[in-house]
Amino acid sequence: MTADAILITISLLCLLLGMAGCFVPTIPGPPLSYCGLLALNHTHQVHFSATFMMVTLLFVVLIQLLDYVVPVLGTKLSGGTRWGNYGSLAGTILGLFFLPWGLLMGPLAGAFIGELLGGNNVRASMRSGIGSLVGFLASTFIKLIFCITLFIYSCVKLFF
C-alpha cells in the first residue's frame, strides 16, 4: 500500500468515526472528523487551503464548546434559573457515566433536580428539564450536520 492509500484509509475511518462520535460521547466527533481532513490534506490527491483548514478548526472548537453550553441555554430559554443551569451541566457530565440512557436523561434530570432544589414547583422544573434535553438534542444535531458535511466534502474532493 502506498502512503497516499494509507492516509486516505485513515482519513475515511476518522471521518466515519467522527459521525459516530456525534452519538457516542466517548468519541469526540468533530475533532476526529477534523483529523480525517488533516490526513486527507497530507495526500498528493487532495489539498485544502490553509484558510479552509483554519476556519474548519475554528468551527470544531466552537462546536465542542457549544456541546456543553447548548443544553444550559435550552434550560435558560425554557424559563429555568441558575439552579437548572447548574443541574443541566452536572447532569450532562454525570450522564456520560451511564451510557446510553445517561446521555439523554442526564441533562433533563439534572435541570429538573436543580430547579427543584432551587425551590421551583414540579411543572416549572420539568419544563426546564425538557428545555435542557431539547438543547442537548440540538447540539447533537449540529455536530452531526457538521461531520456529515465534512465527510461529503472530503469524498467530493477525493473522488470527483
Topology, pairings included?
Layout: H1 3-20, H2 29-41, H3 50-77, H4 82-95, H5 101-117, H6 122-159
Helix pairs in contact: 1-2, 1-6, 2-3, 2-6, 3-4, 3-6, 4-5, 4-6, 5-6
Strand content: under 5%
Q: Based on DSSP secondary structure assignment, what is the total number of beta strands?
A: 0
The assigned structural class equals mainly alpha
Low-confidence stretches: none
Straight-line N-to-C gap: 22 Å
Helix segment tally: 6
Outline type:
elongated
Would you give an account of this structure?
- The protein is mainly α.
- Helices cover 80% and strands 0% of the residues.
- Helix 4 (82-95) crosses helix 6.
- 41% of the residues are buried.
Summarize it:
This protein is mainly α. Helices cover 80% and strands 0% of the residues. The model has no long low-confidence stretch (mean pLDDT 90).
What descriptors fit this protein?
160 residues, mainly alpha, 6 helices, 0% strand, elongated
